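Action item from last meeting closed. Structure (690 res):
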């Protein structure tokens, strides 16, 4: 971030930032320390003395370094940035200034997360991803605490502890870590059919994002916008990534979890460090209040989407993440999101999941961050002024002046004053009813939208969903649980249920429970209108001594110009010798990486190089595995021999691009197009032993 586009939040954080350049080591009391490597002892070999205050302070602080991890969404990564609205057209619907003031740059901090795994778990597990954005608006903080899937597992928040207990590692042996493939989760799922729609999303590739920068975000619930006249409009929030929506494949994710458990976190960090600032478009679906009951589902039911074909997503503004945190704990770990943080112009609905969340976030943060003053932690502080009568508590960081800490008061001149311009007023909604523990009948259909999702998938997406169900249920020990899930799936689609049943040793259902309604929503498919670009894609160039240095350079220059990130990989680090004796610098040694960490691979020519690579099991495996995962593979001239060694040269397969020695330009443009397509699922890859 350059000096002139610093946000108000950034300037505020300066007050808390501490540098260490050219400083001396001190105790917490500011006393300079003469030795931090040897404790104070009686004699050189003697016992340590209690009076060694530096030793005691150092150890005590260390002993207390850990705070509880988040009960869900413990594993996350975050970044600073800003939000800018395109125009003032939402002013008819909301009074929120950050949504209606063009030119206003609202600082944000965004945290992405997995849900089930603990803080040290791998990034690429099958899971929902959290997508939480804190907007530091001039009217106070607004938190949009969403996920990368538009629906949720349950309809009423009172079920949340049950759901989370079921998905987390099992209580007797704390197995498995960060995985839904176990008995308790699927037991809950089979008995709680409202989970069906979300389970379709979770079994789809949406649960395996290639990058946080390439996933959608959703507010999930129906919220309410309220305009200056107090008129309400229902709203669903959407985030759309500029780089398109792209996923990994399951085999790849499992391998990445070992090769680089920080894969998504690293990707976000590196993109921002290299100036490829991740960007999303905020969109809204607006529903007039009079249309509340115009749908065949309930707007208050968080297991339902509003199909985009029914209510289009209207673009609102852009979110850009352009600065990594200075300190993970101080910022990413201590940030506290809360659905209840709203600004004038945004309000809630009676969605019972939303209502429960309104209680939970503040409650959990009181224990996680150790008391009621956590809003004073730098990353949580609003840029708007904070003045109230809250006092005392652990870690009070301000020095409230004056005698009056109550309202009304005369001793403080009546201040801080209540009301006035910009004060939040709750939307006035008339509600009548008896107290009752009951689910509304309008929440009763658990299958139609699961079917809608299934019907909307491309062929390869359906294959991945079936494979995911087979994998997950294959890990479930109790047969009756597998059977229960298949029974539910037969309510979604008969073919789906049969395909899953056949893979997991369950008797396939004889006939459809209900006929498939046949409707789809094209926008739900990742195949729908995909964004195709090589920008920020990681491309491996395999080389050994004797490589054609001009080709390496030509490929690298062409792809880098289009925004790709190219790395030369060889058996050893340093450099390889080009065919003409040139030094070709190596970015990484093959033993430190793997094909799963790249989006595409190129094998340049140079006979000696290709011969050496063809005899190197790691290089051959690299190419085979990239093929298996549907990645673009390019070979120039003699490079094609490595494809033969990997058994993928012929017959021609989608996304495998070969080029003649002299046709660098034709090759790079065909290869770039293949890499931009992200993956080529229509390949015969089952035969590949990788
Ligand atoms: Fe959360 N959720 N949640 N959740 N949630 C938390 O708050 C909860 C739900 C979401 O990066 C917790 O500070 C309940 C839906 C995100 O810090 C906790 C229910 C959606 C994050 C909590 C839900 C979310 C959380 C744990 C059902 C998507 C991480 C630590 C009624 C719209 C935010 C914390 C971050 C975190 C409760 C359901 C998103 C326990 C009770 C639906 C992105 O308060």
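Sequence:
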């Amino acid at each position: 971030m350059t000096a002139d586009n610093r946000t108000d939040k950034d300037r505020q954080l300066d007050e808390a930032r501490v540098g260490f350049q050219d400083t001396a080591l001190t105790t917490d009391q500011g006393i300079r320390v003469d030795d931090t490597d040897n404790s104070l002892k009686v004699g050189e070999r003697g016992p340590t003395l209690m009076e060694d205050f530096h030793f005691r302070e150092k150890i005590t602080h260390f002993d207390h370094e850990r705070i509880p991890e988040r009960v869900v969404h413990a594993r996350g990564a975050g970044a600073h940035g800003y939000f800018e609205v395109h125009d003032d057209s939402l002013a008819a619907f909301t009074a929120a200034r950050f949504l209606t003031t063009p030119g206003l740059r609202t600082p944000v901090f965004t945290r992405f997360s997995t849900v089930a795994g603990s803080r040290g778990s791998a990034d690429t597990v099958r899971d929902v991803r959290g997508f939480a954005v804190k907007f530091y608006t001039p009217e106070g903080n607004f938190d949009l605490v969403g996920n990368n899937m538009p629906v949720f597992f349950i309809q009423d928040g009172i079920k949340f502890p049950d759901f989370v207990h079921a998905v987390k590692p099992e209580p007797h042996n704390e197995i498995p870590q960060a995985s839904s493939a176990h008995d308790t989760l699927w037991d809950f799922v089979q008995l709680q059919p409202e989970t069906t729609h979300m389970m379709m999303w979770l079994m789809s590739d949406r649960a395996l994002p290639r990058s946080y920068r390439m996933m959608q975000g959703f507010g999930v619930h129906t919220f309410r916008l309220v305009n200056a006249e107090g008129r309400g409009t229902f709203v669903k929030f959407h985030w759309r990534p500029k780089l398109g929506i792209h996923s990994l494949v399951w085999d790849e994710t499992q391998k990445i979890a070992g090769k680089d458990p920080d894969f998504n976190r690293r990707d976000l960090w590196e993109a921002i460090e290299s100036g490829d600032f991740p960007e999303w478009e905020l969109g809204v679906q607006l529903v007039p209040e009079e249309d509340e009951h115009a749908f065949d589902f309930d707007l208050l039911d968080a297991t339902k989407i509003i199909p985009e074909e029914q209510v289009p997503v209207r673009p609102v503004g852009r979110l850009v993440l352009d600065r990594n945190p200075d300190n993970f704990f101080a910022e990413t770990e201590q940030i506290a999101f809360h659905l209840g943080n709203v600004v004038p112009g945004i309000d809630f609905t009676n969605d019972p999941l939303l209502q429960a969340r309104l209680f939970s976030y503040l409650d959990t943060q009181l224990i996680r961050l150790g008391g009621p003053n956590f809003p004073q932690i730098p990353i949580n502080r609003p840029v708007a002024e904070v003045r109230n009568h809250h006092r005392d508590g652990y870690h009070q960081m301000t020095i409230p002046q004056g005698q009056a800490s109550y309202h009304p008061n005369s001793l403080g001149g009546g201040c801080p004053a209540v009301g006035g311009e910009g004060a939040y007023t709750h939307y006035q909604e008339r509600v009548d009813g008896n107290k009752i523990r009951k689910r509304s009948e309008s929440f009763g259909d658990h299958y139609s939208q699961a079917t809608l999702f299934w019907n909307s998938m491309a062929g390869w997406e359906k294959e991945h969903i079936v494979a995911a169900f087979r994998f997950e249920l294959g890990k479930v020990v109790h047969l009756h649980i597998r059977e229960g899930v298949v029974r539910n799936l037969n309510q979604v689609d008969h073919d789906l249920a049969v395909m899953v049943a056949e893979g997991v040793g369950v008797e396939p259902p004889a006939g459809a429970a209900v006929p498939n309604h046949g409707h789809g929503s094209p926008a739900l498919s990742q195949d729908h209108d995909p964004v195709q670009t090589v920008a920020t894609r990681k491309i491996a160039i395999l080389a050994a001594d004797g490589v054609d240095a001009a080709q390496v350079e030509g490929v690298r220059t062409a792809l880098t110009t289009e925004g790709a990130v190219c790395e030369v990989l060889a058996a050893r680090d340093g450099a390889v010798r080009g065919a003409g004796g040139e030094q070709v610098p190596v970015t990484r040694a093959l033993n430190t990486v793997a094909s799963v960490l790249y989006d595409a691979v190129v094998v340049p020519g140079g006979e000696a190089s290709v011969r050496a690579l063809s005899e190197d099991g790691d290089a051959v495996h690299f190419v085979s595995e990239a093929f298996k995962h549907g990645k673009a593979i390019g070979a120039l001239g003699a490079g094609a021999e490595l494809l033969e060694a990997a058994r993928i040269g012929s017959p021609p397969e989608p996304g495998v691009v070969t080029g003649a020695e002299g046709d660098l330009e034709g090759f790079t443009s065909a290869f770039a197009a293949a890499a931009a397509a992200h993956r080529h699922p229509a390949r015969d890859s089952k035969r590949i032993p990788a």
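Note appended to the action item: Residues 70-73, 76, 111, 113, 130, 132, 145-147, 152, 157, 160, 220, 302, 336-337, 353, 356-357, 360-361, 364-365 surround HDE (CB under 6 Å).
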